[in-house]
Amino acid sequence: MNDCDNAWYRREGIALLTDFYELTMMAGHLKDGRTEQQVSFDYFFRSLPTHTGFAVAAGLDCFLSYLEHLRFTESDLAYLKSLEVFDNAFLDYLRNFRLRCAVRAVPEGTFVFPGEPVIQVEGPILDAQLIETALLNMVNHQTLIATKAARVCLAAEDDPVLEFGLRRAHGPDGGLSASRACYIGGCASTSNVLAGKVYGVPVAGTHAHSWVMGFPSEIEAFRAFARLYPDRCVLLVDTYDSLKSGIPNAIQVFLEMRDQGLNVRPAVRLDSGDLAKISKICHAMMRDAGLDDPLIVASNDLDEDLIADLKRQGARINAWGVGTQLITAYDAPALPGVYKLVAIKTDAGWQSRMKVTSNIEKATDPGRKQLVRYYDADGRPLGDMLYLQEENWPESGVIEGRSRKNPHAARHIENAASAELLLEPAFENGRRVRPARPLAAVRDATLEQRNRFPDEYKRLRNPEIFRVLLSPQLGEMKDAMLMNPESAQ
Fold first, then answer.
1. Which of 288, 236, 246, 244 is nearest to 267 (CA)?
2. Which of 159, 163, 182, 297 could be 149's S-S partner, Cβ–Cβ 3.0 to 4.6 Å?
3. The domain spanning residue 380 has which CATH number?
């Protein structure tokens, strides 16, 4: 059983997780006799959050689990009938509905960029239309949160990041799926116990201020917690005064534990005040007391910029609890992912389609495509190229291409030593092509990608833009369609 099989994606009624217009379009296609019309759709996102140089693909496994369990129940059909919009023929069609689409996708944990087809769906138009909303809901959200988590973890350098965001998340699944995405992005653990059960994410936590306030004194609260959890004893020291009482009382308790023969790492959490200043004093106080290698966890509305700033100030913090800013992607709360028709099958074969608009930024890349990533001799990514599916593509050398925004303009990728096809078969004939990877393996893939990408793409401010180009053949097709909108059919 894969991780997402334990989640809500398999529950009764999931087929209605769709926009109403998907169903009205399906009913229209059915009435027009278009149930076998084959189409190809691309999922991609138009832009990255501000100051972000990459995105981490996430949410695919949950989407595939949804596809596997996609059925209309009698309860669903009764509700749709009550709307008095759909005729009995359409409701009977839904009663017997079984998804016939094939899906190709970039694996979760892969660094991806604007304009790239991250997921491709091909199949009958009714089927492909129905799943649009669920795909966008699951993949946009998890990709956004995994990307934010990766930035936070980059700022923390080698320190563990603990995700503490459930209580500020956007509802139950906004917390559950976000905890999953945070782990993919590199977080070491979550406070969300349900995410631990459903997805196997390591769980962690300390105690609240109310624990301390519920005892006659702070030191009694610390002693009680230490007795209960000697191997997981992280003491929250700022309930009253971190420097005058919290840290001294924590030091006393850890010394008492050592005198009892307990060999535990002394650990405290700072949740308020000047974290840089207090952490330095805390570290010095603990070291002076003979408590070597203390773990100092910081929380309190942290994000990647504040963590980086605290690092620059020499804060003696070596673990970070991040909640609201991470779980909500506070500074960029939505990823502009879209799902667009790129080809339709006729008696003459596949014909490319393109959305043509007065806003050149929204013109789509036509046709059924391949996505190829090029690497230098040291295995560092150089750029990505979109090829039409029937094209052969070079694996090394100078790779000629065209600009996505100005497809008449020649561009190229230099010094390519190897290439990788990123899109893989993921779903066919109503089931996954291969078993889901364990979530820990997806997280490892993210960390491996992070290590391979040059630092200029990972800067927290003004990162370098990773090159995504069209093949010359695809660029010429797009340019012709832009010049003659009537050909974009």
1. 236
2. 182
3. 3.20.140.10
Q: Report the CATH number at residue 290.
A: 3.20.20.70
Clarify whether residues 376 and 465 are in a common domain. yes
HSE (side-chain half, CA atoms, 13 Å) at 82: 6
Residues 273 and 341 in one domain: no
Asked whether the predicted pLDDT for residue 4 surpasses 80, the reply is no
Q: Rounded to an integer, what distance in angstroms lies between the CA atom of residue 457 and that of residue 111?
A: 11
> Which residue type does 82 have?
S
Between CA 192 and CA 270 the distance in angstroms is: 20
Q: Output the six-digit token pair for 337.
A: 């992912």
Co-location of 370 and 304 in the same domain: no
- Structural domain count of the chain: 2
Phi, psi angles (nearest 5°) of residue 48: -95, 160
> Is 451's pLDDT higher than 80?
yes
Q: Domain check: are 48 and 140 in the same one?
A: yes
> 115 lies in which domain range?
3-146+332-487
pTM for this entry: 0.95
Q: Is residue 304 in some structural domain?
A: yes
Residues 126 and 260 grouped into a single domain: no
Over the chain, what HEC string results?
CCHHHHCHHHCCCHHHCCCHHHHHHHHHHHHCCCCCCEEEEEEEECCCCCCCCCEECCCHHHHHHHHHCCCCCHHHHHHHHHCCCCCHHHHHHHHCCCCCCEEEECCCCCEECCCCCCEEEEEEHHHHHHCHHHHHHHHHHHHHHHHHHHHHHHHHCCCCEEECCHHHCCHHHHHHHHHHHHHHHCCCEECCHHHHHHHCCCECCCCCHHHHHCCCCHHHHHHHHHHHCHHHCCEECCCCCHHHHHHHHHHHHHHHHHHCCCCCCCEEEECCCCHHHHHHHHHHHHHHCCCCCCEEEECCCCCHHHHHHHHHCCCCCCEEEECHHHHCCCCCCCCCEEEEEEEEEECCEEEECCCCCCCHHHCCCCCCEEEEEEECCCCCEEEEEEEECCCCCCCCEEEEEEECCCCCCEEEEEEECEEEECCEEEEECCEECCCCCCHHHHHHHHHHHHHHCCHHHCCCCCCCCCCEEECHHHHHHHHHHHHCHHHCC
| b/e sequence 284-297, b meaning 16+ C-beta within 10 Å | ebbeebebeebebb
Other beta carbons within 10 Å of 100: 17
Examine the pLDDT at 160 and tell me if it is beyond 60.
yes
Of the candidates 177, 208, 204, the one whose C-alpha atom is nearest the C-alpha of residue 193 is 204
